[in-house]
Fold this sequence. Notes:
By secondary structure, the protein is α+β, with helices and mostly antiparallel strands. The protein is built from 4 helices and 9 strands.
Amino acid sequence: MRPALLLPILLLTLACSSKLERAKAEDLIRKEYPVVVPVAVPEKASAEKGSPEYLRLVALKESLDKSGWFDSSVSAEGARESFTFRLKPSAPKDIKAAPKGFSMPAAEAVFVRAVRMEPTREGARVAYEIRLDKPTAQFPIFQSLHPDARIGQSKQRHATFERRRGSWELTGTDETFRKAE
């Protein structure tokens, strides 16, 4: 074979590599981050006294009362108690109305690194880590609901990749939070 033909064939072979490279996977996943880790505050909620949900609502009420951003009230209905939360006009503007209540950013989660890559029939599955970062003023409220949450704590997520038109594409993740604006 002539050397002039060998170079283009070699370059084409390298360009069409079927294995997903770790750096490529990390670059594609990194574009999806950072994401906002929110605290959900229901407008109304009720729970049976002494239940885990009741204890969570009591912790939420105490944290919201300390913040001064919400008016909260509790009313007894037999063995259940109903909690009502209303946003005060003086509350920070980043607390937004959400379906059935309010949502406020507690922190961001940032991409750290890919930790494991597995080939699949359709493409590849990648396990990666995210880290809780950049707490907001609402982070203590988040911590009252999730006492084990700490800034700098890592969690594992998963992404799927497929090979399309000669290149790798990120087709999905199991991330539940939305991208930061």
